[in-house]
Design goal:
Keywords: Cell adhesion, Cell junction, Cell projection. Belongs to the kindlin family. Its main location: other. This is FERM1 protein. It comes from Agelaius phoeniceus. The protein is α+β, with helices and mostly antiparallel strands. Among the domains are: 82 residues, Roll (Ubiquitin-like (UB roll)), CATH 3.10.20; 167 residues, Phosphatidylinositol 3-kinase Catalytic Subunit, Chain A, domain 1 (Ubiquitin-like (UB roll)), CATH 3.10.20.90; 107 residues, PH-domain like; 107 residues, Pleckstrin-homology domain (PH domain)/Phosphotyrosine-binding domain (PTB) (PH-domain like). It has 20 helices and 24 strands. The strands form 4 sheets. It has a 7-stranded antiparallel beta sheet with strand order 14-13-12-11-17-16-15, with helices on one face. A 7-stranded antiparallel beta sheet has the order 21-20-19-18-24-23-22. The chain is globular and about 95 Å long. The two termini are 42 Å apart.
């Protein structure tokens, strides 16, 4: 018999692979180890045997078979489960990665391949000077979105190295902590709030010299060089199923890059995953604002989000003459005076994007009498055979409900019908040129959604009623402090649409150096000739010509947010008990079940009514419980169910943010809400 002491001291051979660049030095090193040797001791023995004088501090063991890092250096090999057949690679934790930013520029930088993706993204954002890193994540392009590109690019060469912005010499990229002072709200502004050009202190983010200046301008300024040929080569979703492919490749925030098969020098997309842009401030957020603007711009050009012809022209006008020209000339602009800065900050107070569209109302304001709206509106009810019944009624909006009566005199009695808007979908149906101001309400009922259309007489009436409907859908009344800003936001968007034809622009569009096909989606370049598009974009430009660069970008973002489909990420799912596939839309405050064939919403569930959600990892099924004994369960067909689970938890995590708190993220809470127990 062998004693326990003799058994415990028994040594065995372990073959280790060292990832180094030294020629003539063996990469596979055999070591004799014992099970009670801790990981740190194994590192020490290995380095002593290699006998290469270099900094090994960034090295760690990667277990190839189990796809995991051995980062707990105090654990023994027995506790880790390492045996003689284990394939351990001694490699660097920080490796080079290529990231394609929302503005389609590629940066090359050193990223931690051993940290969780959530932490890695936070470090990347510090390097790129993007605040609120919790809004972004890393995306692998799915095979479906690359097929078209590959077919077209068979004979094309790889992009030249000068097209890639190399940031590998920055402090964060080298594995060093970033200076937290750059995140401070009390510091000197690091960007000109009007021109958006970087101030000198920003250069500390980048390597010294002219490269740093170039890096800043590429990230903070727009360079709209988008040809129709370039657009044609890019993936353009045609159906909801196509749109679902765009969201299939989000990386798991609770696992490292290496654990998700990302290799050194791979290319990933850095994108805003969560559409809740909190605390936008032009003094510190020029890069962030520009990248949000660019993500919105490409989403519209590639028709990832639908918009009307009128809206497309507004987007084109903001791009074509404002952002483009001002971006190109901003390097020569001087610093603006304080009054101009104040004007931009005043404008920003109306344009600022927060989770719910404004600050919480104070207590005294909310306990006063809740205001009501009362007006004559037209009620449109869809009938069979494509006919519509349009009739005028007296409508009263109180709390979160709309009641309508035969006329004003009968408003003291019982209403014809009372509509509770809490949890409903509110869709604008507006054509300013045709004087059409409609509100489409999709109200949840037991067997689906009840459609109701309201028609307003003018812009002011529409803005007041639309704002009230939007707040009511979130369970809030007109007493909320966000009501008036919401009305103003709607009016400003309508004002942008309400242009008059400029005679000079209309008569001489050929005198303008402009390629309209670069500013609208391919659908509209096929519908109109270049001269027609130029003239119409010039018309729309009349209402945005006086804006500053940052304000133009903020207006673009605001207009993007006003689109009915804004913020929806689509997934193909199969609901429990259903015999057909549906599309699930995930937004910042709700889930929407959508008919895949028609695109019509079937049911909406609000996060505010959610009691709990969990995942059955064995059958990959997401189960959610809501108030009033409502429960749903579904499996995800177009992506891993962990992605939807993380989306829900991520949006709930973002709803806990407050301006009163410092900008330190509660990483533990994020992983608790999104990680799951797989």
């Amino acid at each position: 018999m062998v004693s326990s002491t003799e058994y415990g001291s028994h040594t065995w051979d372990l073959l280790l692979t060292v990832d180094h660049q030294h020629e003539g030095v063996e990469k596979e090193i055999p070591l004799q180890v014992t099970g009670d040797l801790h990981v740190g001791g194994l590192m020490l023995k290995l380095v002593e045997k290699i006998k290469i004088a270099q900094d090994w501090s960034d090295y760690a063991f990667w277990w190839e078979q189990k796809k995991c890092w051995l980062l707990k250096t105090h654990w023994t090999l027995d506790k880790c489960g390492v045996q003689a057949d284990a394939k351990l690679i001694f490699t660097t934790q920080h490796k080079m990665l290529r990231l394609r930013l929302p503005n389609m520029k590629t940066v090359r930088l050193k990223v931690s391949f051993s940290s969780m993706v959530f932490r890695a993204v936070s470090d990347i954002c510090k390097m790129l000077n993007i605040r609120r890193p919790e809004e972004l994540s890393l995306l692998k392009q799915s095979e479906g979105t690359l097929k078209k590109k590959k077919k077209k690019d068979k004979n094309s060469k790889e992009p030249a190295t000068e097209d890639i912005l190399n940031l590998c010499n920055s402090p964060v990229s080298s594995g060093l902590p970033a200076n937290p002072g750059l995140y401070s709200k009390t510091m000197t502004p690091i960007y000109d709030p009007v021109s958006g050009s970087p101030a000198s202190s920003t250069m500390t983010w980048f390597s010294d010299g002219s490269t740093a200046e170039q890096s800043c301008s590429i990230l903070a300024l727009s360079h709209p060089t988008c040809s129709p040929e370039m657009l044609a080569e890019m993936y353009q979703p045609r159906t909801l199923a196509d749109k679902a492919k765009l969201n299939a490749g989000w990386l798991d925030s609770s696992r490292s890059l290496m654990e998700q098969d990302v290799q050194e020098e791979d290319q990933l997309l850095l994108r805003f995953k969560y559409y809740t842009f909190f605390d936008l401030n032009p003094k510190y957020d020029a890069v962030r604002i520009n990248q949000i603007y660019e993500q919105a711009r490409w989403a519209i050009l590639l028709e990832e989000i639908d918009c009307t012809e009128e809206e497309m022209l507004i987007f084109a006008a903001l791009q074509a003459y404002h952002v483009s020209k001002l971006s190109l000339s901003s390097e020569t602009q001087d610093s603006t005076c304080e009054s101009e800065v104040d004007e931009v900050e005043a404008a920003l107070s109306n344009l600022e994007v927060t989770l719910e569209g404004g600050n919480k109302s104070n207590f005294l304001e909310d306990i006063t009498d809740i205001p009501k709206l009362a007006d004559n509106l037209k009620l449109v009810r869809p009938k069979k055979l494509a006919l519509k019944a349009i009739k005028t009624y007296w409508f009263v909006f109180r709390d979160t409900s709309i009641s309508y009566f035969k006329n004003k005199e009968s408003a003291q009695g019982e209403p014809i019908e009372k509509l509770n808007l809490k949890g409903c979908e509110v869709v604008p149906d507006v054509n300013v040129a045709a004087k059409k101001f409609g509100i489409k309400l999709l109200i949840p009922v037991a067997d689906g959604m009840n459609e109701v259309y309201l028609r307003c007489d003018n812009e002011d009436q529409y803005a007041r009623w639309m704002a009230a409907c939007v707040l009511a859908s979130k369970g809030r009344t007109m007493a909320d402090s966000s009501y008036q800003p919401e009305v103003q936001k709607i009016l400003s968007f309508l004002q942008m649409k309400n242009w008059t034809m400029c005679s000079q622009a209309a008569s001489e569009p050929e005198n303008v150096d402009m390629k309209p096909e670069c500013f609208v989606s391919p659908r509209y370049t096929k519908k109109f000739k270049a001269k027609q598009l130029t003239a119409r974009i010039l018309e729309a430009h009349q209402n945005v010509s006086q804006m500053s660069l940052v304000e133009a970008k903020l207006r673009f973002i605001q207009a993007w947010q006003s689109l009915p489909e804004f913020g929806l990420s689509y997934y193909i799912v199969r609901f429990k008990g259903s015999k057909k596939d549906d599309v699930l839309g995930v937004s910042y405050n709700r889930l929407i079940r959508i008919d895949m064939a028609t695109g019509d919403p079937i049911t909406t569930w609000r996060f505010s009514n959610m009691k709990q959600w969990n995942v059955n990892w064995e059958i990959r099924q997401v189960a959610i419980e809501f108030d009033q004994n409502v429960s749903i369960a579904f499996t995800c067909l177009s992506a891993d169910c962990k992605i939807i689970h993380e989306y829900i938890g991520g949006y709930i995590f973002l709803s806990t943010r407050s301006k009163d708190h410092n900008e330190t993220l509660d990483e533990e809470l994020f992983h608790k809400l999104t990680g799951g127990q797989e």
